[in-house]
Amino acid sequence: MIKPDIELAFVSDPIKPVVATANLNAMAAGMPGLPHEFVWRGEKLEIAAVLHTWRETGLCRHSRSESYVRKHWFEVETLSKRRARIYFERQARGGNRKQRWWLFSIEEKEDAEQLVFAGDD
After folding, report:
1. Are strands 37-40 and 16-17 parallel, antiparallel or unpaired?
2. CA pair distance 74, 98, nearest whole angstrom
3. For residues 69 and 55, is the Cβ–Cβ distance under 8 A?
């Protein structure tokens, strides 16, 4: 079932990847290995499908003629049928240099449940 264009709730929280579930093939190619599982606010988010990916670029700090990939974005659907936008920062910012995965936005649980029930008709 294709979901209508719904609004996602803005979150902007760090998420903790379950490292054992990382995509090693992507990592071998120099890309971030999107894990199949994350922990967010004590809740496990399991990725069922990647719906869309894109990159955010900016000028390189060492050369004005080159661009640098700053973030890798992933629009995903979880096993609980919630749509979410996750990004990976190539260079971590702030005091926590290890925090590179972020949950940008996520579909509210109630919205996801209504769509699942509506699709059962």
Report:
1. antiparallel
2. 19
3. yes
Residue 32 identity (one-letter amino acid) = P
Strand residues in 1-121 grouped as ranges (E): 9-14, 16-17, 37-40, 43-59, 67-78, 83-89, 101-106
Reported pTM: 0.78
Considering just the CA atoms, what is the radius of gyration of the chain in Å? 16
Half-sphere exposure of 35 (CA within 13 A, CB side): 18
Identify the CA nearest to 77 among candidates 105, 49, 101: 49
The CB-side HSE value for 74 (13 A sphere, CA atoms) comes to: 20
Amino acid at 17: P
pLDDT tens by residue, 70-108: 899 999 999 999 999 999 998 777 666 678 999 999 998
Burial class (CB in 10 A: 0-12, 13-18, 19+), 43: exposed
Helix-, strand-, coil-residue percentages of the chain, each rounded to 5: 15, 45, 40
